[in-house]
Design a protein that fits this description.
Helix content: 25-40%
Strand content: 25-35%
Largest sheet: 11 strands, antiparallel
Mean pLDDT: 86
Distance between the termini: 37 Å
Number of helices: 13
Structural class: alpha+beta
Shape: elongated
Number of strands: 19
C-alpha cells in the first residue's frame, strides 16, 4: 500500500516538474532561438548550400513588364496646353538573371560576381508586338537641347539642323526601338564633332544580355545579417554622383535576397543601380504567398521625400539645392546628362502637382507601389514587384524653337514592373522548413500539455485510492462511562 502511494505521488511530482520545465522553455524562447541559430548557419553563400544555389540562379520566374505613355496632343502641348497621355501595355519580357564570374575571396567571407540579365519577349503576355508605335518626348533631342542651351552659337546651329531634318520635341518610335535602341540622326550628326558620343539611344540600350558591373558581396559566414550584402560595386564602396556622403553610401543587398531572421522592426536596405542609389524598406503587413507566411516590406514615402520633409535627402538634389519635389529623383548625373527623372508609376506618393500636370495620371497603391514579400525566418523572397517610372524634364528653351511654348513639366515616358513569385518547388521546400519550425518551437507547449495530462492522471489516481477501514479497537470510545 505504501509503495502504491509512493508511485502515485511520484506521478504528481513528475507532472509538476514537466509543467515548470515547459513554462521555463516558453519564457526563455530556447527552441525558437535554436531554430534561428540553425537557419543562420545554413543561409550562407557557400558551395553546396540551398541559399547559394538560389542566389546564383533564382528559381522564381521573373517578368519585366513595360507600360508606355502615348502622347495624344503634341501640337497642343507645343502651344502651352497640358499633355494628355494614354497608358499602353504591358509589353512583357521573361527575365533571366544568373550570377556569373563567381569568385570567393577572403577565406569565403566575400564573393565577387556579375549579375547578367537577359530579356526574352513574351508575345502571349503582351498587349501587342514590339513593333507597336508610341509617340513620346524625343529624349535624345531634349538631352542635346538641355546640354547646349547656354551656348547661343551652338544652340542656333543645332536648332537649324533640327529644322532641316524635321527633328522636333516629340518622336514616334516602336516599342523595341524605345527599349533596346535606335540610331538617332541628331546624335549621329553630333558624333562628327564629338567622336566619343554614342549615336544609338534606347531606354535599356546595352542592358540586354549584359550586366551592370562587378559586385563584391558578403557571404554571411561571419555575420548572418551580412548575407548577400553589397560590399563594393565596380570596385567602389560608395557612389560619387550625389552631394552628401550619406546619399552616396552603398547599403543593403541588390533586392533578390535578404538575411535570415527578419523582424517587423527591421529596415531592409536595397542598392539599385537603376536608381543610382540605395533605399530602404519597412514592414507594412503580414501576407501569405502559396501558403507561406511572409512580411511585406515597402519603401516609405520618406525615401523619395523632399528635403523639407526628410532633410537626409538633401544630397539627392543636384546640382546642390536644386530639388524637384517629393516623389522624384533626378538621375541625370548617372545617365550621361540625359534629363531623366525617376518616380513611382503615375507619380504615386509624389507631390500632387506632378500628376495634375499630366492628363491621364491615375496613381493608386495596388498597381503602383513597390513591395517585397519575405519569409521572415529564411529571408527568402516569396513575391516582389519593383515599379519605377521613367520621366523626362521638359521645358521651353529660348534658343530652340522646337520647344515652342511648352510648359515646364515632368513628362512620363514609360514605367516598368519587374515582378517575381516563388516557384512551386521552392515553395514546397520552404513549407517543409515551416513545418519543422512549428514542430520544434511547439515542443515546450507539447511538454506543458503532457504535464497537464499526467497531472490529470495523478488526480484520478489519488481519488481512486481507497481510505483504509478502521479496526475494532480504533472504533472504541476514548472514555468509557
Amino acid at each position: 500500500m505504501v509503495l502504491k502511494s509512493c508511485c502515485v505521488y511520484s506521478v504528481g511530482v513528475v507532472s509538476v516538474l514537466m509543467l515548470i520545465l515547459g513554462i521555463s522553455l516558453v519564457l526563455t524562447s530556447v527552441f525558437p532561438h535554436l531554430v534561428q541559430s540553425m537557419v543562420k548557419k545554413q543561409v550562407v553563400l557557400k558551395n553546396g548550400t540551398d541559399a547559394f544555389e538560389a542566389w546564383k540562379d533564382p528559381p522564381a520566374h521573373i517578368y519585366m513588364q513595360f507600360y508606355f505613355f502615348n502622347l495624344t496632343n503634341p501640337q497642343e502641348v507645343l502651344d502651352g496646353e497640358r499633355p494628355a497621355v494614354v497608358e499602353i501595355g504591358p509589353y512583357t519580357y521573361r527575365e533571366y538573371r544568373p550570377m556569373e564570374q563567381i569568385d570567393f575571396q577572403d577565406n569565403g567571407t566575400k564573393v565577387t560576381a556579375v549579375n547578367s540579365k537577359t530579356y526574352i519577349f513574351q508575345h502571349n503576355m503582351s498587349r501587342g508586338p514590339e513593333s507597336d508605335l508610341i509617340r513620346t518626348v524625343n529624349i535624345p533631342a531634349m538631352t542635346v537641347m538641355e546640354r547646349f542651351k547656354d551656348n547661343s552659337l551652338e544652340a542656333n546651329l543645332i536648332s537649324a539642323y533640327m529644322r532641316g531634318t524635321g527633328e522636333g520635341l516629340f518622336t514616334t518610335r516602336t516599342v523595341g526601338e524605345l527599349l533596346w535602341g535606335y540610331e538617332d540622326g541628331l546624335l549621329k550628326a553630333l558624333k562628327v564633332l564629338r567622336p566619343d558620343l554614342d549615336d544609338v539611344f534606347g531606354l535599356f540600350y546595352k542592358n540586354n544580355a549584359s550586366n551592370d558591373g562587378e559586385y563584391v558581396f558578403f557571404t554571411g559566414q561571419q555575420n548572418s545579417r551580412d548575407f548577400s550584402r553589397v560590399d563594393t560595386w565596380k570596385g567602389e564602396s560608395s557612389l560619387n554622383w550625389w552631394t552628401s556622403d550619406e546619399c552616396n553610401m552603398i547599403n543593403g543587398t541588390i533586392g533578390t535576397s535578404f538575411h535570415p531572421v527578419i523582424t517587423k522592426n527591421d529596415m531592409l536596405y536595397i542598392f539599385s543601380s537603376d536608381l543610382c542609389r540605395s533605399l530602404y524598406t519597412v514592414y507594412e503587413e503580414d501576407v501569405t504567398v502559396k501558403g507561406i507566411t511572409g512580411y511585406r516590406f515597402v519603401p516609405p514615402s520618406s525615401v523619395f521625400a523632399n528635403l523639407t520633409v526628410n532633410p537626409d535627402n538633401a544630397g539627392f538634389c543636384v546640382p546642390a539645392g536644386n530639388c524637384l519635389g517629393s516623389g522624384l529623383l533626378n538621375v541625370s548625373v548617372c545617365k550621361e546628362g540625359a534629363p531623366i527623372i525617376m518616380s513611382s508609376p503615375h507619380f504615386y506618393q509624389a507631390d500632387e502637382k506632378f500628376a495634375q500636370d499630366i492628363f491621364g495620371m491615375t496613381p493608386n497603391k495596388e498597381e503602383h507601389q513597390t513591395a517585397i514579400d519575405i519569409n521572415p525566418l529564411t529571408g527568402v523572397v516569396l513575391q516582389a514587384a519593383k515599379r519605377l517610372q521613367i520621366n523626362v524634364y521638359v521645358e521651353q528653351i529660348p534658343n530652340f524653337s522646337q520647344t515652342g511654348n511648352v510648359r515646364t513639366v515632368v513628362f512620363p515616358v514609360a514605367y516598368l514592373n519587374e515582378s517575381a513569385t516563388i516557384d512551386d518547388a521552392a515553395a514546397k521546400k520552404l513549407k517543409g522548413i515551416g513545418v519543422q519550425q512549428n514542430v520544434v518551437e511547439n515542443i515546450p507547449f507539447m511538454l506543458i500539455g503532457l504535464a497537464i495530462i499526467v497531472g490529470g492522471i495523478f488526480m484520478l489516481l489519488v481519488c481512486q485510492q481507497k481510505v483504509p477501514e478502521s479496526t475494532t479497537a480504533e472504533r472504541q470510545p476514548l472514555l468509557s462511562s
